[in-house]
Design goal:
The structure is a single chain. By secondary structure, the protein is α/β, with parallel strands linked by helices. The protein has a single domain, classed as Ribokinase (UDP-N-acetylmuramoyl-L-alanine:D-glutamate ligase, 3-Layer(aba) Sandwich). It has helices at about 30-40, 55-65, 110-115, 130-145, 165-175, 185-190, 195-210, 245-260, 265-280, 290-295, and strands at about 5-10, 15-20, 20-25, 40-50, 70-75, 80-85, 95, 120-125, 150-155, 175-180, 215, 220-225, 230-235. The strands form 2 sheets. The protein has a 9-stranded mixed sheet, sandwiched between helices. Helix 1 crosses helix 8, helix 6 (about 185-190) crosses helix 7 (about 195-210) and helix 8 (about 245-260) runs antiparallel to helix 9.
Length: about 300
């Protein structure tokens, strides 16, 4: 790994998405970790897999993605997480997420404590907090990682694994936020924000004093809001294989540009380009083509 690159911690779920065409590596946190590593970040994945074939395959896959596994735990009894994914004609997924799996029981460890001491950013989500054990570990990391410039919350709401209290608490830990058009109304209702998306995310950024807010709207494009910017991009027309992992790729790319000090609009365009390309591929973590990987970082 390049020691000059930003050190990013990704904490939460690691699992396998069981598509109609076969299993693919997945989990929002793990997807983000792989994409961030492809973009040149030093990435430590903080998660837990089972002592089973899926767990061993996950470790092998992550090693090939150059993700650091010092904080990836192996549960001796519980299985690696799996999700049954169904796709509609537009490639939009629905999920059946298995419960009481390895990543639900992520425990604090000396390895996590060491990673927390020196990091530039943390990405965490709501789904990874569905169990009390993993939730306590995620919250402790956010408390102890004082060096992190960005604490990025991906509000990945998956019924029935969320509630208002968990969303509010997670927002309190974050200083950056990513959500999609289906998740925004939940947040807007809880915080009593305006109903119009643009007004809601501007109000959200101001209310919580966030570094940035990302709103993805599928084929209708995306928004990026900062203290001084409200930037919208139209969606790109692509032939969709499936949309799984596109949001995670978007988040990783935007964060990489942000940490590199690139202009926000430039990072936003790059993130949308990457996410659109991921939609044309099967699975959440396809192999990146080199021109897409470099983007505006090519001159660094």
């Amino acid at each position: 790994m390049d020691t000059a690159a930003p050190h990013v911690l990704a904490i939460g779920e690691t699992l396998w998405d069981l598509f109609p065409y076969g299993p693919r590596f997945g989990g929002a946190t793990a997807n983000f970790a792989c994409h961030a590593a492809a973009l040149g970040c030093r990435v430590s994945l903080i998660s837990r897999v089972g002592k089973d074939d899926y767990g061993r395959d996950a470790r092998s896959f992550l090693e090939r993605q150059a993700v650091d596994l010092a904080c990836l735990q192996v549960d001796p009894t519980r299985p690696t997480g799996t999700v049954v994914v169904s796709l509609n004609a537009a490639g939009q997924p629905t999920y059946e997420i298995m419960q009481d799996v390895a990543w639900d029981h992520l425990e604090w460890s000396p390895q996590i404590e060491a990673a927390a001491a020196h990091c530039d950013a943390i990405c965490f989500g709501t789904l990874g907090q569905r169990h009390a054990t993993s939730r306590a570990t995620i919250q402790r990391l956010l408390t102890e990682s004082r060096s992190a410039r960005i604490r990025l919350l991906d509000i990945n709401l998956r019924a029935p694994f969320f509630d208002d209290e968990r969303i509010e608490q997670s927002l309190g830990w974050a200083n950056a936020l990513k959500l999609n058009e289906d998740e925004l109304p939940h947040v807007a209702r809880i915080l009593e924000l305006p109903s119009a998306p643009a007004e809601a995310i501007v109000a959200l950024q101001r209310r919580l004093e966030l570094e940035f807010v990302i709103l993805t709207c599928g084929a209708d494009g995306s928004w990026l809001v900062t203290k001084n910017l409200c930037h919208r991009l139209e969606g790109q027309k692509v032939e969709v294989a499936d949309t799984v992992g596109a949001g995670d790729a978007f988040t990783a790319t935007l964060l990489r540009g942000w940490l590199a000090g690139r202009p926000a609009e430039q990072s936003h365009r790059w993130a949308q380009q990457v996410a659109s390309w991921v939609c044309t591929q099967q699975g959440a973590v396809p192999a990146w083509p080199e021109p897409l990987r470099q983007g505006p970082l090519a001159t660094l």
